[in-house]
Specification:
6 strands; two-stranded antiparallel sheet; 3 helices; globular; about 120 residues; single chain; alpha+beta; about 20% strand
């Protein structure tokens, strides 16, 4: 069974319209290790950005729980997914908007420190 990472982000930002690019910031865990999303995108090169609605607020908040690497937030929360044309990744059934993205570039900010 496939394991899908689901991580809430309070923001992402449009970087360019041509080519169409968005930026996410993954940060670090409090112990300084990279978060799962960062490693997954680095290894797999593709990801989805879902836009949650108010009706999904409880699941959105619950998806921020720290789970073991390799444990799926999607399965943990019992969320439903279905295939998405143009992506190997499935989309969340209840998300009204989803962006299919491919890694364009990774940048590290110097002096970045883990949260306390």
């Amino acid at each position: 069974m496939a394991v899908f990472n689901l991580a809430p982000y309070s923001f992402f930002n449009t970087v360019s319209s041509e080519p169409p690019l968005v930026m996410i910031s993954t940060g670090l865990r409090s112990d300084g290790r990279p978060k799962d999303t960062r490693e997954n995108v680095k290894q797999r090169q593709d990801f989805l950005i879902h836009i949650a609605s108010v009706a999904q607020l409880e699941d959105l908040n619950a998806s921020s729980a720290t789970l073991s690497a390799g444990e799926s937030e999607v399965a943990h929360l019992g969320l439903t997914t279905f295939p998405l044309a143009g992506s190997r990744l499935p989309r969340l059934k209840d998300a009204r908007v989803v962006f299919v993205r491919t890694l364009h570039e990774r940048t590290t900010t110097s002096g970045a420190t883990p949260p306390r």
